[in-house]
Design brief:
The chain is mainly α and 483 residues long. The protein has helices spanning 9-32, 38-43, 50-61, 64-77, 83-109, 114-122, 125-157, 164-213, 220-226, 236-252, 257-265, 269-279, 282-285, 287-300, 306-309, 312-318, 326-364, 370-394, 399-410, 414-422, 428-446, 459-482.
């Protein structure tokens, strides 16, 4: 951490103005609400057009993990990590496997959460509660990683003026205020601003780094001197890891509950498909520049540890503060980083509250009014945010490790969603057996001294393979028995 604040006085004023605008959007979202219902609060009335839908999906997907965790991993891995651009593109492929059909069902049956679909498709309370529980855990993890990221940023850019814990608490209060004021409308509208800030910020920072630190080609001698391992050929272990992460991301990120909520929120099917088509190109305009920046940084600032490497972009910018006009660039990057984090945390928080309210509380209190359910959801938002803030402050762990743990469990719900959409003959017991097999295998490796990457693959990936295999075998044997 540097003792010098990266934010100038004007930068602080800009940041405060930005945060104030988010609260005002929360107020606007409250006034724009048409009724006191879960559908209106958690899905914005299911009326998002192409611009808002695309920007809220973009801002949610590109989080603090992209700016902090991904940059840190790129620093440590080097050019190998360029494969993550492909990872981010294949997420859209995962969506397209099920999203168009799920959207049609959601319009017909008024789904609000992923639990609604599972309950409708399988009519199994146990399966619904299991998938809702896994989703809440994964979303909580998602909030945790991004709250940690925002704490690092606030402490770093203020030169320690705002402590790690204080930064987390302050930003958490801002988010929970505008989210509970306007629900999905406020979240989507703030996402639109945050998405634009993120995109513009990344592009500007990329060109600034290219100008002042040089292109990758211009840094080739420095790479050979400080990071010669960057030029070695990928090993079989590297390739296995890539394949493993590819599977995790394809089946994990594409079934994020907050992403499914945005599928439900689309104005129509055409709007949904157009949003996905735009999402395909965004890794080239967001992930790729961030990775190139971090790799160049690894040549100029070698030997950083894991925690320091996750601050590589801020470190590079901090060395340019003597350049005229750089304070504006730094302020823009900080605002973009904060925007990316907030857009992710508020979406995860909204999804958790909707899952608890609709799939747990409402199931136990079927006669509760829509107004009461909405109030319960808002209260739960405050409670879950308080818990996540506490964990983010006191739970030590690198951000990338937390992301992997989350995805290894979340991928286990993918068969229930993707296969359920396409194969009507699959019964709840089949999905349950697969889910138990996948979860059991994964947790056996994650919670014991066993190697968390058997044969080089993440335990969750092998668990997913076992999940699918169990479903296939049970479904086949059941069909044979019925003949």
């Amino acid at each position: 951490m540097t003792d010098q604040a990266l934010l100038s006085e004007n930068g602080i004023y800009f940041l405060l103005l930005y945060l104030t605008s988010l609260i005002l959007l929360g107020v606007a979202g409250k006034f724009a609400s048409k009724e006191e219902s879960l559908k209106d609060f958690y899905l914005g009335g299911k009326g998002f057009g192409i611009t808002v839908l695309f920007l809220t999906m973009y801002a949610t997907q590109y989080s603090g993990n992209s700016l902090i965790g991904f940059a840190g991993s790129a620093y440590r891995s080097g050019w190998f990590f360029l494969v993550s651009v492909v990872f981010m593109i294949v997420i859209v492929g995962g969506y397209l496997l099920y999203a168009p059909r799920l959207y049609i069902l959601s319009q017909k049956h008024n789904f609000i959460t992923v639990g609604d679909y599972i309950d409708f498709r399988y009519n199994s309370k146990l399966l619904t509660y299991l998938i809702v529980g896994i989703s809440i855990f994964a979303l909580s993890n998602y909030m945790l990683t991004n709250l940690k990221a925002i704490g690092y940023i606030m402490e770093y850019v203020t030169g320690g003026g705002i402590a790690f814990a204080h930064g987390i608490i302050f930003m958490a209060i801002i988010m929970v205020i505008y989210e509970t004021l306007g629900g999905m409308r406020s979240v989507a509208w703030t996402d639109a601003i945050q998405g634009i800030l993120l995109f513009v910020g990344v592009i500007i920072i990329f060109f600034v780094i290219m100008i002042h630190y040089g292109t990758p080609n211009a840094n080739s001698a420095l790479f050979l001197q400080n990071r010669p391992e960057l030029f070695s050929a990928p090993t079989l272990a590297n390739q296995i890891t890539w394949l493993s992460v590819l599977i995790l991301i394809f089946f994990g990120i594409s079934v994020y509950p907050q992403a499914i909520q945005r599928i439900y929120s689309a104005k129509n099917e055409h709007t949904l498909k157009r949003s996905f088509s735009l999402m395909v190109i965004m890794p080239l305009l967001t992930t790729l520049p961030l990775i190139v920046i971090a790799i160049i940084g690894s040549a100029h600032f070698p030997d950083l540890d894991k925690s320091q490497s996750e601050q590589i972009i801020l470190l590079m910018l901090s060395k340019l503060t003597h350049i005229e006009g750089m304070s504006i660039v730094i302020t823009l990057f900080i605002a973009a980083a904060i925007a990316a984090i907030m857009s992710t945390v508020d979406s995860a928080m909204l999804a958790i509250a909707s899952l608890f309210t609709q799939d747990i509380y409402h199931k136990q209190n079927p006669h509760a009014s829509q107004k009461k359910l909405t109030t319960i959801g808002k209260i739960f938002s405050w409670l879950i945010m308080a818990l996540m803030v506490t964990l983010a402050i006191y739970l030590p762990s690198t951000i990338w490790w937390l992301i992997q743990i989350k995805l290894e469990l979340l991928v286990q719900i993918a068969p229930a969603i993707m296969l359920g959409i396409h194969y009507k003959s699959i019964v709840p017991k089949t999905i349950l057996l697969g889910l138990f097999a996948g979860l059991g295998f994964t947790l056996m490796f994650l919670l014991t001294p066993l190697d968390a990457k058997p044969f080089g693959f993440h335990a969750g990936v092998l668990g997913l393979v076992l999940n699918f295999l169990t479903i296939f075998l049970h479904h086949h044997l059941r069909r044979v028995a019925l003949k």
